[in-house]
Fold this sequence. Notes:
The complex is a heterohexamer, with 3 copies of chain A and 3 copies of chain D. By secondary structure, chain A is mainly α. Chain A has helices at 3-10, 12-15, 19-37, 42-59, 67-77, 80-90, 96-99, 107-110, 113-124, 129-136, 143-153, 158-183, 186-190, 202-219, 224-239, 243-266, 271-274, 286-315, 334-346, 353-381, and strands spanning 276-277, 282-283.
Amino acid sequence: xxxxxxxxxxxxxxxxxxxxxxxxxxxxxxxxxxxxxxxxxxxxxxxxxxxxxxxxxxxxxxxxxxxxxxxxxxxxxxxxxxxxxxxxxxxxxxxxxxxxxxxxxxxxxxxxxxxxxxxxxxxxxxxxxxxxxxxxxxxxxxxxxxxxxxxxxxxxxxxxxxxxxxxxxxxxxxxxxxxxxxxxxxxxxxxxxxxxxxxxxxxxxxxxxxxxxxxxxxxxxxxxxxxxxxxxxxxxxxxxxxxxxxxxxxxxxxxxxxxxxxxxxxxxxxxxxxxxxxxxxxxxxxxxxxxxxxxxxxxxxxxxxxxxxxxxxxxxxxxxxxxxxxxxxxxxxxxxxxxxxxxxxxxxxxxxxxxxxxxxxxxxxxxxxxxxxxxxxxxxxx
Amino acid sequence: xxxxxxxxxxxxxxxxxxxxxxxxxxxxxxxxxxxxxxxxxxxxxxxxxxxxxxxxxxxxxxxxxxxxxxxxxxxxxxxxxxxxxxxxxxxxxxxxxxxxxxxxxxxxxxxxxxxxxxxxxxxxxxxxxxxxxxxxxxxxxxxxxxxxxxxxxxxxxxxxxxxxxxxxxxxxxxxxxxxxxxxxxxxxxxxxxxxxxxxxxxxxxxxxxxxxxxxxxxxxxxxxxxxxxxxxxxxxxxxxxxxxxxxxxxxxxxxxxxxxxxxxxxxxxxxxxxxxxxxxxxxxxxxxxxxxxxxxxxxxxxxxxxxxxxxxxxxxxxxxxxxxxxxxxxxxxxxxxxxxxxxxxxxxxxxxxxxxxxxxxxxxxxxxxxxxxxxxxxxxxx
Amino acid sequence: xxxxxxxxxxxxxxxxxxxxxxxxxxxxxxxxxxxxxxxxxxxxxxxxxxxxxxxxxxxxxxxxxxxxxxxxxxxxxxxxxxxxxxxxxxxxxxxxxxxxxxxxxxxxxxxxxxxxxxxxxxxxxxxxxxxxxxxxxxxxxxxxxxxxxxxxxxxxxxxxxxxxxxxxxxxxxxxxxxxxxxxxxxxxxxxxxxxxxxxxxxxxxxxxxxxxxxxxxxxxxxxxxxxxxxxxxxxxxxxxxxxxxxxxxxxxxxxxxxxxxxxxxxxxxxxxxxxxxxxxxxxxxxxxxxxxxxxxxxxxxxxxxxxxxxxxxxxxxxxxxxxxxxxxxxxxxxxxxxxxxxxxxxxxxxxxxxxxxxxxxxxxxxxxxxxxxxxxxxxxxx
Amino acid sequence: xxxxxxxxxxxxxxxxxxxxxxxxxxxxxxxxxxxxxxxxxxxxxxxxxxxxxxxxxxxxxxxxxxxxxxxxxxxxxxxxxxxxxxxxxxxxxxxxxxxxxxxxxxxxxxx
Amino acid sequence: xxxxxxxxxxxxxxxxxxxxxxxxxxxxxxxxxxxxxxxxxxxxxxxxxxxxxxxxxxxxxxxxxxxxxxxxxxxxxxxxxxxxxxxxxxxxxxxxxxxxxxxxxxxxxxx
Amino acid sequence: xxxxxxxxxxxxxxxxxxxxxxxxxxxxxxxxxxxxxxxxxxxxxxxxxxxxxxxxxxxxxxxxxxxxxxxxxxxxxxxxxxxxxxxxxxxxxxxxxxxxxxxxxxxxxxx
Lengths: 382, 382, 382, 111, 111, 111
Ligand code: NA
Ligand code: NA
Ligand code: NA
């Protein structure tokens, strides 16, 4: 047989391996390190990191016969993975703290400003609209929402956007506190909030997800699939009559979807999309810009949330602790936990956990709506 | 930018929402209510109800980009969901009570008359053959069978047929007793049945599902996939050497398939198929007819079953309690439970549970066969 | 209606049933018997046997509308099933015994000779290259590897090859001992191995799967997907931060994939591919040849492994017990268990379990690499 | 009218084939269950036969007995469902210890 | 420049719709939670209201109480996740015994 | 004949590459395991080394010890498989109580 023909074929592993690939292996390794050593959202960053490594070893979603392409088409192109994850997330959220104090929901809207602030910046930096909007979704501070919108507007950015969204989400406890201290006076942080929640009947808890689905589908059809699956999961849990399905949503469905979502997204992170594209011969600086803008999105969200918290505090005659404004960004439940902790640091007897969680779940709702609205608007303009 | 262009696009949620949709939201709500408050087959009616709501908020299986269409194509069009559910059901059925008293199997055939009686009525009412046959399958009183056949003959009727099948199944304890009292004398209901089952060896229990699969595939190829998956599940359980697979069948597989089957079927229930079709400008009275005919199917099944029970009782010289005839309709295991209870109501010491379960599992087999035969016949005539 | 038209249609079950089909039902029954009574790899042989029965009752993967074709296309054609199984297997392998004694890894290469020895024989017997190579993969003595390679080179042989691979794997305790006694002197089998493993840090255990993936992807791209998924599973387990995903890999994912993999492969075993093809009018003797060659592959693997073990023993100055050479064939973990037992039979105090397991896990790695290399070479020559 | 006749034909054919298959089942079941049970331990008598011989007495007791049997059986099944035993194909190195013992118990005859 | 104006429009529209939906939620929630709770047993007071009336005292105790409540709730959820009850649709014949009892308890009214 | 030669070439190439990769593994493993283990607690000595130094004595005891170790390890793995800990990404509000405690334990350094 003709070795001259076969050997080159066998060595494609080496011949097709570029310096850029080597660099991306490093990137994948760093993500895995952050996932394991720092426990930054490990369930997502570990698969993403491993997927990134595979993508640069000839198994990217852009390779025709790669098994990761099969998974990508089945779960990302079809939009199913983020929605399946939301079914599971919904089955793990409890809206009672929010239902017990309805006005807290307002904080969920303010915390989305970062999405649009980032979009403006990205446009100004020269990103095309679809990419700018996708980058903005990092400001939703909600993985599935960002991935759902990006997979429709700018799939090539899935990698950096998902990485930014999940990494910064783990960094919430580092990103937010300085801003909180800067924007609130000690006096404000010391505000104690009375907690006399209305009793919430089981009927209300069950009706809530259904009504929310209907309202959102009418006002923001773009957000309908996300909100519908989130609320479906919540209904499965609260109904109390379908534990089999509730269990499936909280375990099999979300676990399998998360693993393959992470792998598939990681498998989009090839060096030519991340660093240098030999075809066009240009460097991919946008990747770094995305990471930078993502951080800004988090900051703007927090600032807007705190500002709105101060406004509500003012109009309520100082009955509301502005710190809970910072939970409106979603990042459920870390942000809620953090605000409560900040208040406790100032005064160990100041216990605003329930208010914070109310605002935090509101942020979850707000993120989905804002993401969907953005998707709808931009789609109509393309 | 041109608001005049964009705003209409953003308001599609409202503009595309019709009065019919509003009505269907109510229908979906009622199904969810029955599932939660009345516990009518919640694992199915709850997802169907929620799917129905989504279908009328722009996420029906008829909308090109709906995620529910993806699920529908993957599981209903491909026929996989009902078959996956049957793998799980098979792993939960125990045929020992039937194997211990082989002649009980005859009751499983009589209980299927409702399928064909309903078909005749539907034809007489002017339904085309494919729809009439699909409506008849409600008389199989077995969800997966009805859905499997209907998805091939008249997919548009999946919604009402599935709803009828599962709702009435939950109503068995209300539908059957009056008929039982009407058709049997107290003397008959008091008949005690001797219970001296043959010992059933493990070998037989394992051979049974295999032999059944072969026989049915030869006589009624149309029923082959359903029977094969049902028996596969049973084999996984009885073999005792593949607990991993048995567990997967009884949990992951059946739970996930059930959730998405319900959602997908609910997502076919759009107002234009259910109430009024603006395109053709005609009212969909057939939906009501389906519900009505479905009830008749249940009644005819019960009557035929009881009648056959009386015949067997007569020929056995009064050794058989005709009540067990009512279990031949399948509706496993509620029907079996009910017959046993009826006998006990007359005489607390009359214990026919094992006979009833034998007839009930026989009904399960009969339903699948009858459904498959019907599918085969009608397919050849279309 | 015209019975003359319909009846034939209804009787297709009988009319299309051939003597060959009857024979294949027997084959399927035997496989199920071996799975249940003899516990030969039941999780695979039972589904394969049942699939074989269905294939000969009109539900083969070659029938256009068969549900098993849907499953086959979704999992075998797409290559996903073997890879999903490997994610689970990887999450169950522990590489510590190997990492503690690196040189043991060499035994993993020698044990693959059977693959190529069988290929030569098959060529000599007149098999075309793609089939010969597929038959060779039985010598990988690793189900998923053999199936992965065969599904790409000669899908028609999936049935006999999978059956051979898994049956003989269960027969390891019968196949290997005579060869071991024949090729090793009592003196050699009595060799005691000092066991002073280097301490293995958690860092190393976590880095290992990543580094292996990279090396293999560069040297043997053909083996990349298999090795990548195997190592992904191992990383999920060893990372210790993603128990949810680890659990999913070890249970839901591997169980579901295994059940449907078995069914789909069994569903390729139609009589015309196995016994007699009416179309070409020729008998399929190759099926028997495959089974025969498969056995030879196992023997050659063992011989090569033991021979290499003796070589290492010689160069180590009799510090290595050649028996562990027999674990290099993979067949993880039965082969490892067996070698340890052989040594103990000679001298109850001779405890080489850890060395055997090291060589055995090495064999697992070697099998995947050899399989991938073979796939790459043959692909380039077709 | 012709349609109705069609429907009647379908009914005849359908019920006929259904009964046909079911009758075959009857024969098949009578056949396979007729085979004498070799291994005593395999026998599964769902309830005590002698207590059934005299159906007038101790019915409640029997009912209870059955109910308990059922409960236990169910429990068992549950365990099956939630604590599956590991299967050969998927053994991990660490499960080896147990296996080795098992093998010794079984003796080589089986594998 | 024109692009930036576009972006500002998007921001205006987007935040507007988001706030709109959220305000609707506020109204909806106030509405549905306003419905008086009939069944007392259904009430879910997340913590004792009176202990909350005087927020100066026993805060630590309260915190603890909540923490425990949360812990228990979580535990409960875990059980839900790992020991699901069987569901009507999937009953096996052997689960019948239990069901029969259940039915007697519930009474016929429900089914 | 030419085909056989082909097959021999394939064998040569195949075994060559396989051995090549495996040898690389050997080097790689020797390398990464050579890195001194910092954290003592991380060390995993599969069995006591000194008891291994004198292989004549207490072999049975050792075997038993290993078997037990394996059994325990397996058990552990089982638990992993069936009682997974919740993961940050999926926390529910009710799991908060536990998390808060965890956070306090860990200190802020980590997150
Ligand atoms: Na947000
Ligand atoms: Na029926
Ligand atoms: Na091998």
